[in-house]
């Protein structure tokens, strides 16, 4: 029989082994140093308390199975830590996954010792739920900018909506109800209920392919809604409506042409200002039904169903699922404390989910402190204010991670109901909070916020094995209520003293405080200015000399940069994005040439010709991103005197459909380490002087479908470790010089169906570790496996190429 004390030596040995592994890896690798230091701190805290006052005996007094499992986990944790130095710096996805493992290791250490340390250690959850909280479904964009009209997926857990679902479904299917409205405060499950209905088999059987889903933001116009329907559901990309009336007539004609089959139009999250939009979309067509979700009541329009809050039982279920996702995770949290926490959330599903996540694996003291904060607000705030207070508690839980809190508040800088590029966020955070430029530690904050349900991080590719090198394609979504919370918390100080200044302009109505501004400058570091379709670029002067990051959110067809940015001498990040259906024609771009400290410039969905030349004069620019931009022939006629962009390290050109050639001047960017030219379907050639990019480490060319070959000079890129030519359909051969890439470790080439053979020089790629390709190409590589001992051929399925071809078509 094994005694309890028999496990003392193995436990101590495993614990010390993990400590030594962590200490050695902190010295050996910089990639995970932040996380390793976090684990080291946890281990030191446990060590200082574990061997005092007989606590080790208390640990060993646990059930034998639990003690053995934890020893096994410590030993595996040691193996995980020792692998840190083996993860290659270029393998972004493996770094991403390994960071999750380290976070979970820290979490498990804290969880196991929580009972012994609860009086001495304020336990903080740093875990990551890899079971679905980080990765959600991806909706492809087809031919336009905004998200598609395809019905989004459902959350993993749905609580308390069954009765509502049955009733709304009954009302929806009645022939005499043309408009059905589901109304409730924010965060009550209206959107989830609408998606449940759209995914219901009976509903799909009745409406078939005629279910259209549109999220209606506060500034959405009738033209925009109809344009989304035509562009994203019918794939009619050439339609442009001059007036709302024209858009309305065309939509009505389209629905009538569908014949007798029933049609369902879902308008999600309609604001009170958009009541007329619902009226305009009503047509006297048999079988045509509109389902509206809104925080507001539109009793004069149609049948309204009031969505009630969760009852105590369902509310408790939802909070417990969020706070205790795994059986046995609930440690020393009494029932009455859980019940009080449920009551403070007042049945709001979002509040229950977010509060539960913020308390996951927290100490009893943390639960009590959170309950006290919530209880203090009950007599002061009304119902919606209480919800804000409830949600604020989840932000207050970040008190030990002030940068994570700031990162959450920064999310209010972006428009409602739009995807936010993870790359755009990290560009800001690198500058504002002095984080690493490689993004390894920066993405920790995305993971942290995602684990607390404060945002949703959506990975770019469904197949995780294909994610190496694609962090730039991830994006973030956020619930409207959480965005409101970020804006609310960012707007507590007087305007002149705010750390982040978030400005929304409707029409040409400049805020009064702006017009009345005198000589007193504004101290903000982050400024966001959002304008709508009718804004005519009439600007007043604005003094904000300390601005380091500027976000301009645009919807109009023509937009002129504000003249006052030329005085933003400390500006380091500039993000200009158009959220309209078509690229915005950008004027006054030469103003940016006067910004001496600009480091990162992101231009998205803009027409840049011909003023793009002014970008090349930015001597201190380190990263340039041009996404879905119209470039015209501006790059081909590049006339900037050398050196052009002498400090540029990263260049990203994505989905710029009119890019045909890369100018030879690009080859003079001798500090460039990352070059990404992707989804540029008109690109036919790369300059022969390409090999002059001697410091290039990562080269992405995927989905450049007309690119016919790689230049012979590519062999001079001896620092290249990652090359992606996947879905380059027109490449028929690789140059012999490919074998001179003696530093190449990863080659992605799935979908290169024109490739008939490989040059024998590939046998010289002695450091090549991974070739990611389709089955057909894998046969070409199989001849060389004996020559390349470390080579691993990863075969991907063909469906990704099929989906890609649908988008191209």
Structure overview:
By secondary structure, this protein is an alpha/beta fold. Among the domains are: 1-121; 162-306, Rossmann fold (3-Layer(aba) Sandwich); 660-809, Leucine-rich repeat, LRR (right-handed beta-alpha superhelix) (Alpha-Beta Horseshoe), CATH 3.80.10.10. 33% of the residues lie in helices and 13% in strands. It has 24 helices and 24 strands. It has a 13-stranded parallel sheet with strand order 9-10-11-13-15-17-18-19-20-21-22-23-24, with helices on both faces. Helix 4 runs antiparallel to helix 5 (92-112). It is globular, with a radius of gyration of 28 Å. Mean pLDDT is 80; it is low at 115-148, 378-384, 462-470 and 799-809. Residues 1-151 form the RPW8 domain.
Beta-strand content bin = 5-15%
- Strands of the biggest beta sheet: in what spatial order? 9-10-11-13-15-17-18-19-20-21-22-23-24
SS summary, helix count = 24
User: CA-to-CA gap between the ends?
Assistant: 70 Å
Characterize the largest beta sheet: strand count, sense, and whether it forms a barrel.
Answer: 13 strands, parallel
Q: Percent helix among the residues?
A: 25-40%
> Mean pLDDT, as a whole number?
80
Rg over C-alpha atoms, rounded to the nearest angstrom: 28 Å
Number of strands: 24
CATH topology of the domain at 660-809: Leucine-rich repeat, LRR (right-handed beta-alpha superhelix)
* Shape, per Cα inertia axes: globular
CATH superfamily of the domain at 660-809, please?
Answer: Ribonuclease Inhibitor
Q: Name the CATH class of the domain at 660-809.
A: Alpha Beta
Taking pLDDT < 50 over at least 5 consecutive residues as the criterion, the unreliable ranges are 115-148, 378-384, 462-470, 799-809
């Amino acid at each position: 029989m094994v005694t309890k004390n028999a496990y003392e030596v193995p436990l101590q040995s495993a614990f010390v082994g993990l400590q030594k592994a962590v200490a050695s890896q902190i010295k050996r690798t910089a990639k995970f140093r932040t996380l390793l230091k976090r684990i080291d701190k946890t281990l030191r805290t446990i060590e200082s308390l574990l061997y005092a006052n007989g606590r080790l005996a208390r640990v060993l007094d646990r059930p034998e199975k639990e003690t053995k499992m934890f020893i096994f986990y410590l030993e595996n944790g040691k193996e995980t830590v020792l692998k840190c130095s083996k993860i290659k710096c270029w393998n972004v996805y493996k770094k991403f996954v390994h960071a999750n493992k380290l976070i979970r290791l820290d979490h498990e250490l804290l969880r196991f010792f929580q009972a012994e340390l609860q009086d001495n250690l304020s336990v903080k959850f740093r875990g990551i739920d890899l079971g679905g909280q980080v990765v959600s479904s991806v909706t492809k964009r087809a031919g336009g900018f905004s998200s598609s009209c395809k019905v989004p997926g459902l959350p993993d857990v749905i609580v308390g909506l069954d009765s509502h679902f049955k009733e709304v479904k009954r009302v929806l299917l009645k022939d005499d109800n043309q408009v059905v409205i589901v109304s409730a405060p924010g965060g009550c499950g209206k959107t989830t209920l609408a998606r449940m209905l759209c995914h219901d088999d009976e509903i799909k059987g009745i409406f078939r392919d005629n279910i259209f889903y549109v999220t209606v933001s506060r500034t959405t116009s009738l033209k925009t809604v109809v344009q989304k329907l035509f562009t994203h559901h019918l794939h009619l990309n050439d339609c442009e409506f001059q007036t709302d009336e024209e858009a309305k007539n065309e939509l009505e004609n389209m629905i009538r042409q569908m014949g007798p089959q029933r049609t369902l139009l879902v308008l999600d999250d309609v604001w009170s200002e958009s009541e007329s939009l619902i009226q305009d979309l009503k047509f006297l067509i048999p079988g045509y039904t509109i389902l509206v979700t809104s925080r507001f009541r539109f009793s004069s329009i149609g049948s309204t169903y009031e969505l009630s809050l969760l009852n105590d039982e369902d509310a408790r279920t939802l909070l417990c699922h969020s706070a205790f996702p795994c059986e046995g995770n609930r440690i020393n949290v009494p029932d009455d404390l859980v019940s009080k926490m449920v009551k403070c959330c007042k049945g709001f599903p979002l509040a229950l989910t977010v509060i539960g996540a913020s308390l996951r694996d927290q100490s009893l003291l943390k639960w009590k402190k959170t309950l006290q904060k919530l209880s203090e607000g009950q007599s002061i705030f009304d119902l919606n204010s209480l919800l804000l207070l409830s949600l604020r508690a989840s932000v207050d839980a970040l008190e030990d991670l002030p940068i994570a809190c700031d990162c959450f508040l920064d999310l209010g800088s972006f428009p409602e109901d739009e995807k936010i590029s993870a790359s755009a966020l990290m560009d800001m955070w690198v500058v504002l909070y002095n984080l690493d430029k490689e993004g390894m530690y920066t993405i920790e904050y995305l993971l942290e916020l995602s684990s607390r349900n404060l945002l949703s991080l959506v990975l770019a590719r469904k197949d995780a094995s294909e994610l190496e090198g694609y962090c730039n394609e991830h994006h973030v979504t956020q619930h409207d209520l959480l965005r409101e919370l970020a804006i609310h918390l960012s707007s507590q100080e007087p305007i002149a003293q705010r750390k982040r200044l978030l400005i929304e302009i409707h029409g040409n109505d400049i805020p009064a405080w702006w017009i009345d501004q005198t000589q007193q400058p504004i101290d903000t570091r982050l400024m966001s200015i959002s304008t709508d379709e009718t804004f005519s670029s009439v600007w007043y002067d604005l003094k904000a000399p300390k601005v380091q990051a500027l976000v301009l959110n645009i919807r109009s067809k023509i937009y002129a940069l504000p003249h006052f940015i030329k005085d933003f001498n400390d500006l380091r990040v500039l993000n200009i994005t158009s959220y309209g259906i078509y690229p915005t024609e950008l004027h006054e771009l030469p103003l940016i040439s006067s910004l001496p400290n600009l480091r990162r410039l992101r231009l998205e969905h803009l027409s840049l010709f011909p003023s793009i030349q002014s970008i090349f004069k930015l001597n201190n620019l380190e990263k340039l991103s041009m996404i879905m931009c119209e470039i015209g022939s501006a790059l081909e006629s590049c006339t900037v005197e050398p050196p052009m962009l002498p400090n540029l390290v990263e260049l990203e050109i994505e989905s710029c459909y009119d890019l045909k050639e890369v100018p030879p001047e690009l080859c003079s960017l001798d500090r460039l380490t990352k070059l990404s030219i992707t989804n540029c379907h008109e690109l036919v050639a790369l300059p022969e002087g390409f090999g002059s990019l001697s410091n290039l480490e990562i080269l992405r060319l995927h989905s450049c479908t007309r690119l016919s070959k790689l230049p012979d000079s590519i062999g001079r890129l001896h620092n290249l470790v990652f090359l992606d030519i996947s879905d380059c359909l027109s490449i028929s051969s690789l140059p012999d010089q490919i074998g001179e890439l003696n530093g190449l470790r990863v080659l992605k080439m799935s979908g290169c169906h024109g490739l008939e053979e490989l040059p024998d020089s590939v046998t010289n790629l002695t450091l090549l570790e991974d070739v990611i390709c389709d089955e057909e190409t894998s046969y070409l590589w199989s001849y060389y496996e004996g020559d390349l001992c470390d080579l691993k051929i990863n075969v991907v399925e063909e469906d990704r190429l099929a989906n890609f071809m649908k988008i191209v078509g």
